[in-house]
Amino acid sequence: MKSSVPARSGSFPARLGPRLAAPLLALFAGCALLSPNPDGEAARSGANGASGGRTVEAGGQPAAPGTKPGSGHAQVQEHGVDDAEAEAAENETEAASAEQLPEVELTSQLLFQLLASEIAAQRGELGSAATTYLALARQTRDPRLARRATELALRERSLDRALPAAQLWHELAPGSMQAAQTLESLLLGSGRLAEAEPLLRSRLERARADGSQSEAYSQLQRSLARAADREAAFALLERVAEPDAELPQARLALAAQARAAGNYDRAAAEADAALRLAPDDESVAVVAAQHAGQGNGGSDAAIEMLQKFLERNPQALEARFELARWLAGAERHDAAREQFELALEQKPDSPAILFSLAQLAWQTKQPEAAEQYLNRYIGLADDVRRDNSPAWLFLGQIAEEDGRLAEAIDRYARVGPGEQYLPAQIRRALLLGRQGRLDDARELLKQTPATNNRARVQLIAAEAQLLRESGRTQDAVDLLAEALERLPENPELLYDYAMAAERIDRVDLMETSLRKLIELRPDYAHAYNALGYTFADRNMRLDEALELIEKANELRPDDPHIIDSLGWVMYRLGNLPRAIELLRRAYALSPEIDIAVHLGEVLWKSGHDEEARKIWRDAHRREPGNAVLRETLARLEVRL
Predict the structure, then answer these.
(1) Which of 105, 478, 568, 600 is least surrounded by Cβ atoms within 10 Å, i.e. has the fewest?
(2) Burial class (CB in 10 A: 0-12, 13-18, 19+), 175
């Protein structure tokens, strides 16, 4: 008598039969297949298919198609299968394998090992449990035990244990699609492409037989995205997809893999071929344009492709939205606005289109228009699905920029839970502080929940900023020092502490903090820059200052603040022509007040009085109360 198929739910049977079936019923009851986490959820790929278009999100940013390439076999967690695939495959596995289960005598030793392995897994000893299950699977030749060994190894993120377990599972259940796909993913992720190729060919052969090639290529694209050698993965896909050259989804999968391999022109060519095969398929047109835009033709190629598609299909809303985005990215703002407005005529209650129009208006320095679009967004009917928080945050920023602080505070207060909540509360607190309501601002920050260290650090940094802006710099230093006792190696806290210490002339504390930060994060450019600039500004250790700032410039060569520091240290070293050259470049990149003050001083010292006055006058017009400008003019005895 053969053992029965494992139950889907239930408790340990009251009586154990002489075969293995009964304990397996209990051990596998309620177990999710191939769960990479203790909660038993199947792994999610999070990718759109090769054939699917982009989903437009409420914030106005369409979600990119395809999957970001994985990190190879370092993260075994990523080699599971999708939820829907897992559910379908689980049913298929159980049905197909029911007649292949071996007869195994349930001995006390075997029962003990099964129970001990489950107890070990519950205690977090996943490696031990997986090893035992794999040994039992080899002994009993039962595919369910091999499946359980694979599941435990994936939860442990151990490729060394997951791969042999999956190989045995596939060997014992050759008809199981889930076993094949799990093994396929592990082989691809570990770079063993040649071993995976027969599995991929089999999958596509089954798809051709049942007409599911589109879904098969969507899944195949996601699987190949996990391969570390992307060029080899592309070559593999070329071979297995050869019989499907007339299938648009196959061409899109090739485009995605060519793009992942850095072959953008080939990706564009495959995308163009896909659209020629399906000239009126909107989802194909959208994805094809994304690939075309990465080739030699750039954004012009994507724009032309979408324009031609819309000439044939003027009601294609997603394609029009995508065209508008490409036009905006190419800074063809008027044309982009025209396309967004046409899309809005088709769907006047679209949150995505309204938000995108607001973004475009803001980028083109039309804050009133941006505000109008956002108010329309907020005022949409309650049954229109959207998240109002991004709009309230945006509206708060517009009001703050316009100097309407009370209105900005009110708008920030309307931001609900989610990723915008913390930045909104921080901006709200800082504005309260600028209104002289320091206690209210600090209390708001204390009442704002922080779910992780990153959020805690942001709240601490905001409170320190409040204290500094209120003239209580020593209190800010004390606050940051206390925070560093709890998080002594946090880069943001170390940097903020150093900046606060400099403001109370504790250059020794500043240097110690920045040196530690540089040791922890050798690539932290602004740590080198801050220390070098401090030395230069105080006219001390100038050779060392130059060395530090040059290191920062090497790490971030186009950063205007670092270029400003480099120009300032050149000024201190007496190289005025080089200082002017660098400061002009910094000012062109970012015409901030502090950079303007530096450039003006070096021009003044070089005899370019009128140009210096012009730059200072512009700075004074933009920020008449700037302390650095006021101090510089007083020191140089200049009247504007």
Answers:
(1) 105
(2) middle
CATH fold of 229-313 reads: 1.25.40
pLDDT band at residue 334, thresholds of 50, 70 and 90? Answer: very high
Domain 1-214 in this protein, CATH class: mainly alpha
> Which of 362, 382, 381, 384 minimizes the C-alpha distance to 372?
362
CA separation for the pair 449, 168 (Å, rounded): 48
- Do residues 429 and 441 lie in contact, with contact meaning Cβ atoms separated by under 8 Å? yes
Q: Kindly report the pTM of this predicted structure.
A: 0.66
Where b means 16+ CB within 10 Å and e means fewer, 181-211 reads: bbbbbbbbbbbebebbbebbeebbeebeeee
Q: List for the chain the helix, strand, coil content (%; round to 5).
A: 70, 0, 30
Residues 6+ apart with CB under 8 A from 60: 351, 352, 353, 354, 355, 356, 358, 359
The answer to whether residues 62 and 24 touch, using CB atoms and an 8 Å cutoff, is no
531-640: CATH topology: 1.25.40
Q: Which residues pair with 105 in a beta bridge?
A: 19
Distance CA 74, CA 71 (A): 6
User: Which two tokens mark 101?
Assistant: 């289960």
Which of 298, 282, 200 shows the shortest CA–CA distance to 248?
Answer: 282
* H or E stretch covering 575: none
CATH 1.25.40.10 residue ranges for the chain: 229-313, 317-386, 531-640
Please name the residue that has the structure tokens 């009001």. Answer: 399
CB-based contact 390:409 (threshold 8 Å): no
- Whole-number Å distance between alpha carbons of 412 and 421: 8
Q: Which of 156, 175, 155, 154 is nearest to 166 (CA)?
A: 154
Please state, in angstroms and rounded to a whole number, the distance separating the CA atoms of residues 498 and 482. 14
The angle that helices 351-363 and 389-401 make with each other, rounded to 10 degrees, is 20
3-state secondary structure at position 13: coil
Nearest CA among 439, 410, 447, 452 for reference residue 427:
410
**Which among 358, 363, 327 has a CA at the least distance from the CA of 344?**
358
State yes or no: pLDDT of 294 exceeds 90: no
Alpha-carbon distance 130 to 549, whole Å?
A: 53
SS3 at position 105 = strand
* 597 three-class SS: helix
Mean pLDDT of 103-128: 87
Q: Using CA atoms, how far apart are residues 86 and 178, in angstroms rounded to an integer? A: 7
Q: Which two tokens stand for residue 60?
A: 């106005």
Instruction: State the Rg of the chain over Cα.
Output: 31
Q: Does residue 1 register a pLDDT over 90?
A: no
Tell me if 284 sits within 8 A of 248, measured CB to CB.
yes
d(CA 261, CA 273): 19
Domain boundaries 317-386, CATH class = mainly alpha
- In terms of residues, how long is the chain? 640
CB 268 within 8 A of CB 254: no
Rounded Cα–Cα distance for residues 17 and 19 (Å): 6
Instruction: For residue range 154-185, list pLDDT tens digits in order.
Output: 998 888 899 999 989 988 998 888 898 888 88
Q: Using an 8 Å Cβ cutoff, are 74 and 82 in contact?
A: no
> CA 268 to CA 607: how far, in whole Å?
55
Burial 455-465 (b: 16+ CB within 10 A, else e): ebbbbbbbbbb
